[in-house]
Amino acid sequence: MNVIVELEKPLLELEAKIEGLKKLNETQRVDFSAEIRALNEKAVSLEAEIFGNLTPWQRVHLARHPRRPLAMDYISKLDGFVELHGDRSYRDDPALVAGYAYLRGVPVFVLGQQKGRDTKENLYRSFGMAHPEGYRKAARIMRLAEKFGKPLLTFVDTPGAYPGIGAEERGQAEAIATNIKLMAGLRTPIVVNIVGEGGSGGALGIGVGDHIAMLQHAIYSVASPEAAASILWRDSTKAEEAAMRLRLTSEDLFEFGIVDEVVPEPMGGAHRDPAKVVDAVLAADARALDKLMSLKPEQLLDRRYEKYRKIGAHEEMVLDRAAR
Amino acid sequence: MTPTPNWLRRRGAKPQPADDKLWEICPSCGERIYIKDLDAQQRVCPKCGHHFRLPALDRIALLADGDFDEIGENLVTGDPLQWSDRVPYREKTQGDRTKSGLLEAIVAGFCTVEQIPIGLGVMDFNFRGGTMGGVVGEKVTLLVEECARRRVPCVIVTSSGGARMEEGMIGLMQLAKTSGAVERFGALGLPLVTILTDPTTGGVSASFGFQGDVVIAESGAAIGFAGRRVIDQTIRQKLPEGFQTAEFLLEHGQVDMVVRRSDMKAALASVLRFLIAKGYGAVDVARPKSA
Questions:
Q1: Which of A215, A223, A317, B100 would be B126's cystine partner, CB 3.0–4.6 Å?
Q2: Can you tell me whether residue A226 is helix, strand or coil?
Q3: What is the band of A32 on the pLDDT scale with cuts at 50, 70, 90?
Q4: Least confidently predicted of A126-130, B18-22, B173-177, B184-188
Q5: Could you tell me the fold of the domain covering A61-309?
Q6: Peptide bond into B199 cis (omega under 30)
């Protein structure tokens, strides 16, 4: 069960009550505006109380909220999106959507990991977990972007790459490894949006770029808190503690220099005002592209190389060779 | 056994097992093998041929002709997350140092293999399961960049559970960092040969592991992206026999060849010699004087 869905229940009930009163106010002779004002104030303070100080674990659930905008919610707001299908060697992977569109008039190739809204959709989309053929379709699109000089826009929202027999047989590791290398050297601007869950290598498979924008309440982690807990504590119930320690929030990643921009969300998360969030993300992308497109390919690639080159955590130990 | 090479002597003695174990049991056939015999056989079971994991320094001794000139040997992790789970990260790496005799999960440097000058990185599973954090990522990157400067092929022997959890996203970003270096290196027409040994999974297989121009797998090695346990939990069905072994990967077209440890040096040298041989195009690569 999603802890945010539980947490926000009283707020949604209150909001429903306000809506009810507003309707009554319009149709009945009695004036409810004082009550509505009072309830509105209560709603604002309740919202602040619930969402004002979320723990990392609650943030994980916010990123997985069932009504959070999904990749296609952003992509469909681009102009003239046309989907392109298939990896040309195995099948079309619905977990990874590809195509082209226009962002404020700029032609862009687009990639996005698409989760489902319900069980049926989730089965079709493999919960946003791409197979190797999904990553290979993405690789095709990356090469097209380079060949035709179009920027690449990606939307990351996946628990991780699909773990299964077929995925392993068809080379999940190789597919992701190829994409990471391909993006490192792609001679066209790449703007990456972490919009929901950034799950490990599966996220990075479409996640290397010049500008990494992350929604305020998205998460991006080396492994899901559940997986990290079972690896490190050998106890998956420690997921909450893992979420706290992994430093997977947008603030953490901005501080580490892994994320270049944090796109703010409304109080309570993106699902409280999806249209506004979609607009804000696309506006941020347009700004980033505007800057990147003025760079020459060599500048762009040097900048990208340096961006990742400096991410590390090492110290030099002074030691005496003989003493070791 | 061959006499200890000079570079290894300079480096100091390899760590002795704390428990004075005299023998190991072969996990494949159950044979009880004296450790001295096992070491003399390159840690391959004399009865069934099972390949035990090989420490990095032993692997270097196996592949290098003679000297090995190490780089980045003093790099240690900075504990960017101030991590602690059941044990603080700094305490864990302290234990890993004792256990492996190494400061980190990879040893990198320059040597020759059958007279061919190369850069060689070898991962060691005894250090934090060979996981890649900031130091491993930095050393791989340094190695690949230095290979590019010296115009020599790069060889990386992997043994790793993937990105290092204790460094969080800094760990994951090493996939991108090392891949950037590999991409630039490859653009020069210089070869990267990877040797995947037991086990190679997660972030290391999903970056430089499978970015080799030629990918060699050692006999019997477990290789894949997702770990068996994760797959088990996700699909809840019986995994096929030999799933994620080197041989399974060969059959499914994921690696170029499966090579036994005793043949590894010759196989590697053959690949390198061919790839750097003068052909149609002119690639600027350092070649052995005799070639």
A1: B100
A2: helix
A3: confident
A4: B18-22
A5: 2-enoyl-CoA Hydratase; Chain A, domain 1 (3.90.226)
A6: yes
Rounded to whole angstroms, the Cα distance separating A205 from A155 reads 11
Do B194 and B211 form a contact (C-beta atoms < 8 A)? yes
Give the model confidence (pLDDT) of B14-40 as tens digits.
666 556 788 999 999 999 999 999 999
Quickly state the pLDDT bin for A324 (edges 50, 70, 90).
very low
Q: Which of A172, A231, A245 sits opposite B225 (nearest CB)?
A: A172
What CATH fold (topology level) applies to the domain B53-276? Answer: 2-enoyl-CoA Hydratase; Chain A, domain 1 (3.90.226)
Q: What's the pLDDT tens digit per position in A149-189?
A: 999 999 999 999 999 999 999 999 999 999 999 999 999 99
On whether any CB of chain A is under 8 Å from the CB of B207, the answer is yes
Specify the pLDDT at position B96.
96
Report CB contact under 8 Å: B84, A308.
Answer: no
**How do the domains of chain B map onto residue ranges?**
53-276
Q: pLDDT value at position B290?
A: 59
Write out the two tokens for B190: 């210089």
pLDDT at A228 over 60: yes
The ipTM of this complex is: 0.95
Q: Taking 80 as the threshold, does the pLDDT of residue A318 lie above it? A: no
B245-248 contacts, C-beta under 8 A, 24 or more apart: B245/B220, B245/B221, B246/B196, B246/B217, B246/B218, B246/B219, B246/B220, B246/B221, B247/B219, B247/B220
Strands B69-71 and B106-113: antiparallel
Closest CA to A210 of A184, A187, A191, A185: A191
CA nearest to B105, candidates B204, B213, B239? B204
Contact A200 B211 (CB under 8 A): no
Residue B37 · residue B57 · CB < 8 Å? no
Tell me the C-alpha distance between A249 and A227, whole Å: 17
* pLDDT tens-digit readout, A248-303: 999 999 999 999 999 999 999 999 999 999 999 999 999 999 999 999 999 999 99
Q: Do A96 and A111 contact (CB within 8 A), yes or no?
A: yes
**Nearest residue to B169 (alpha-carbon basis) of A223, A305, A218:** A223
Is A174 in CB contact (< 8 Å) with chain B?
yes
CA distance A188 to chain B (A): 15
Please check the confidence at residue B151 and state whether its pLDDT lies above 80: yes
State the Cα–Cα distance between residues A263 and A218, nearest whole angstrom.
10
Nearest neighbour of A180 by CB, restricted to B133, B162, B179: B179
Please tell me the predicted confidence (pLDDT) of residue B1: 46
Q: Where exactly are the structural domains of chain A? A: 3-53, 61-309
- Which residues numbered 181-240 in A keep a CB inside 8 Å of some CB on B? 181-182, 184-185, 200-201, 204-205, 208, 220-223, 227-228, 230-233, 238
* Cα gap B52→B39, rounded to integer Å: 10
Cα B286–chain centre separation: 23
To which H or E segment does residue A168 belong?
Answer: helix A165-169
User: Which residue has 């998956």 as its token pair?
Assistant: A236
